[in-house]
Amino acid sequence: MKIKLVDVDNRLSIKYSKQDDVYAWGADNAYPSLVKTLVNSSVTAKQCVDLNSKYIYGKGFEFTQNVTNKNSLIVNRRGLNINQLLRIVSREFSEQNNVFLHVNYNALYEVTSVDLLSSEDLRIGRADSTGYSGKFVDYDNWDKSKSKKIEKKDFNIIDRYNALPAIIEAQVQAAGGWNKYKGQILHITADFNELYSLSDVDSVLYDADSEYQASVFKNSGLRKGFFGAKLFVTKPFTDDMERRDFEKTINDLKGSENSSGVLLLESNEASDTLSEQFVIQNIDSNIDDKQFESSEQSSARNIRKAFGVPSILIEDGDNSIFGQSGELLKEAKKTHWENKEEERSIITDAFELLFSNFHATINPTNNWKITPIIQTIQSTNE
């Protein structure tokens, strides 16, 4: 895995790329891929994304709790029900602070399918003279991981969301009919003032990378360093055959996985003293855990702050601080649930917007509240 961190001032440079006909997402147009790579390689960042997505999703939509026929909740061609769509949308939003929802219609201009498209693949197309960008480009190689060349012939051009029947009809006609129409994209962001929102990990990209690099360094030390290595000092061998026989014997003693390294030194002269003719010494490990402890703790703390996650919710070591108080843990969960209210509101507003025009009745109560992870504790007076 290679992680390339661009300059802080330029990593989310949003400029129109005339060559690709899109607004580039980051200096190299691969910002979402950078975010995903860093989150998945940093244990703390991944914990934070996982936790925040759970506190957005909660236990799913309240109206689904008493639905016996789950097939009535299917919302797209992949066969996902509305809670499953909410779950993956919550994860994407927690990681990227951007969500792209692909919407399809029937000839009655009703929504027939809603699905999530990856932020890694979506880019905003060029704007018209009024500054309005009416197209999105769906493409799976912006980060050039599959090919070093951007192939415009593989671009999938999709219209921006607009549910007005006249707009949909015009888009259908421009596409060449319903059988060629690709639907629309609804783009929701944490910051509606920006074309693309920054991820929560953005301010701590280097801390997330530091966690990854520290684990790589320690692993390399174990695999290629002096950890568990032996130094053999022998008297001079009489010929190459004797030397090869000795080396074979040593290799046989190293174990089935050859976990320990061996450094063989051959003396220039023979000696009558046995201890000088054959010596075995351990080579001390060059890994010092304390060397990383402070920097790793600092990185983890910064990452938690960036994602707004209370340490008690993800750090086992905090028992020494908080003790075994279940009340403190419960209060932390309630506080974090309240802190994620804005994110839940952004997502549920989008779901209500799209599914209020769904071709089948999904939510007859029109209640789009999400079931909390823990129920609010009522006071003893109630």
From TrEMBL:
This is Phage portal protein.
